[in-house]
Every structure is written in structure tokens, then in C-alpha cells.
Specification:
alpha/beta; globular; eight-stranded parallel β-sheet; Aldo/ket_reductase_CS; Aldo/keto reductase; binds adenosine-2'-5'-diphosphate; oxidoreductase activity, acting on the CH-OH group of donors, NAD or NADP as acceptor; two-stranded antiparallel sheet; AKR; 10 helices
Length: 277
């Protein structure tokens, strides 16, 4: 399994295991342990997923050394601002049973319900992430769900995001944001790379998958990687976990990549500005 290399030289495994919506407790512990057992070394967590304690138990149970794992955390909307972010970081580390994170992200760019404007809040939160980075408590920092307009102000900062985690999958390419990421060497990570599983029923995708003798899920993961994205597929099933990272033995043709880019019916993603928490 290859790695991507972030702008600061930190290596990050090319496929991660997502934990969004994974039910807390035994289900989550079992799932993350199985993911690690089947070879995943990159685990994508977040405080708001409500399952970080379980992820932490699974990391311990795995027996894999901490330095072999790449762990991402995210600061939630309600914890933005300098002091709150610092406290949220400490709690996440405690829950995940680690004393550092490999990557820490601002989870959402905007929350209209909050009293300060999002630019100010993001800038204060970013200052906290920058200080954590400088103190060696996180190996890399970034953002999530940031569209072009949200990213622009942070590009003026001393240290700019190394990662932007977005909803990306066939039929949803977020072109203008991705263009900006490429310009500034910000690695795009793809959440819901299988379109939350819904994509897998697409007839066009099924036909492409049949031609390659691969599953629809493998086509989605490969599409992500060929675009230079870092996919974060999730499954609770061992066979699917294995399948989702077995994509090294084929290459999608350009014409199929293009057909997947515009797969119909899957282009509406979350608009971060429209979601109020
Ligand atoms: P399950 O956990 O039962 O395997 P995404 O990663 O885009 O959010 O998609 C996750 C959804 O896709 C989950 O519902 C998961 O269900 C399903 N899924 C994950 N991998 C596969 C696969 N290889 N084949 C079919 N469904 C899958």
C-alpha cells in the first residue's frame, strides 16, 4: 500500500478507513479492529461521530504500534475558537488514547447560527491548529468541507492547510475547490467515496465494473486514487474492507474516468453554508 506525501513531507496511507456513522460501542470497536487486522493503517475519526472512545479501544486492542498508524481527528463546529479547540484536541487525544494526532482538521467551515462570522472563527481555530502543529502535537493540519470561498482566507496564513477532506465520488467532483487545492498542494481526501453506498446501485457504474471484472466499490476507490484523491471508504464487513483496498491490479481508462466524473444523479453534496448546527 503506497502513501501520499503531504506538503510538509509527512507520509499518509493512500486509502483510509472512515468511521462516520459507525455505531458507538462494540460495533465500532469490532469494525476498527477488523479494519486494522485487514491492513488499514489510516483511521479517520472525528469528535462529532460520537465514537472516538470506541476507536481508541480498538487502536489499543489492535496491538499495532502507534507510530505505524495514521490517525486523523476533527474539531467540531461548537468547539471552534482558540481555547475551545485546544480543549477539544486534548479530549480527542484522551478518547483516542494517544498523545498526538497525525492530522487534525477543522470539520466544517461555516455555521450561520454562531455569533461570530465564520471567517473570524476559522482564523482563531486555525491559529490553535497551527500552534498544535508547531508544538509537535499534530504532524499535519487541514480542513474539511471547505469550498473554495472558505479556503481562500486561510491561504493568507503562515501555514496553510495540507489537507481538505470533502465529499468526492463519481458524479461529484467539486471542480473549483479541487483546482484551488491542486494550486496550493492541498491533498483532497474523499469522504463518502462510495456515495454512502447509494452509488453502488448505478447501472452505468455496474456496467463499467463488469468490464474490468471488479466490484462497483473498487471502481469508486480507484477513481478517487486516479484523481489524486485519498479515499476513506467504510464498511462494517471484513470482506468488503479487504475488497475496498484491493485496487492495485487495474487502471481505469481515461474514457471511463470521464464517464464516472459525470455520473448522473449523484452530484448534490452537502453545501456547508446551508447546514446549520
Ligand atoms: P456496510 O458497512 O454494510 O458494508 P461510503 O464509504 O461512501 O460512506 O459508503 C459506505 C456504505 O457503503 C456503507 O453502507 C457500507 O455498508 C457500504 N459498502 C462499503 N463497502 C462496500 C462494498 N465493497 N460493497 C457494497 N457495499 C459496500
Amino acid at each position: 500500500m503506497e502513501n501520499y506525501v503531504l506538503r510538509n513531507g509527512v507520509e499518509i496511507p493512500k486509502i483510509g478507513y472512515g468511521t462516520w456513522k459507525t455505531p458507538d460501542g462494540d460495533t465500532c470497536i469490532q469494525a476498527v479492529e477488523t479494519a486494522i487486522k485487514t491492513g488499514y493503517r489510516h483511521i479517520d475519526a472525528a469528535a462529532v461521530y460520537g465514537n472516538e472512545v470506541s476507536v481508541g479501544i480498538a487502536l489499543q486492542n489492535s496491538g499495532v504500534e502507534r507510530k505505524e498508524l495514521f490517525i486523523t481527528g476533527k474539531v467540531w463546529n461548537t468547539e471552534r475558537g482558540y481555547g475551545r479547540t485546544m480543549r477539544a484536541f486534548e479530549k480527542t487525544c484522551k478518547d483516542l488514547q494517544t498523545d498526538y494526532l497525525d492530522l487534525y482538521l477543522i470539520h466544517w467551515p461555516a455555521s450561520p447560527s454562531q455569533y461570530k462570522c465564520w471567517k473570524e472563527l476559522n482564523s482563531e481555530t486555525w491559529e490553535a491548529l497551527t500552534d498544535l502543529y508547531k508544538a509537535g502535537k499534530v504532524r499535519a493540519i487541514g480542513v474539511s468541507n471547505f469550498r473554495r470561498r472558505h479556503l481562500l482566507p486561510l491561504l493568507q496564513e503562515e501555514i496553510i492547510p495540507m489537507v481538505n477532506q470533502l465529499q468526492l465520488h463519481p458524479g461529484m467532483t467539486q471542480d473549483d475547490t479541487i483546482a484551488l487545492c491542486r494550486e496550493y498542494d492541498i491533498l483532497p481526501e474523499a469522504y463518502s467515496p462510495l456515495g454512502n453506498g447509494k452509488l453502488l446501485n448505478s447501472d452505468s457504474l455496474r456496467m463499467i465494473a463488469e468490464r474490468y471484472g471488479k466490484s462497483q466499490a473498487q471502481i469508486c476507490v480507484k477513481w478517487s486514487i486516479q484523481h489524486g484523491f485519498l479515499p476513506l471508504p467504510k464498511s462494517l464487513h471484513e470482506e468488503r474492507m479487504k475488497m475496498n483496498r484491493s485496487v492495485d491490479d487495474f487502471e481505469l481508462k481515461e474514457e471511463d474516468m470521464k464517464a464516472l466524473d459525470v455520473l448522473e444523479g449523484f452530484g448534490t453534496g452537502n453545501d456547508p453554508d446551508q447546514i446549520t448546527f
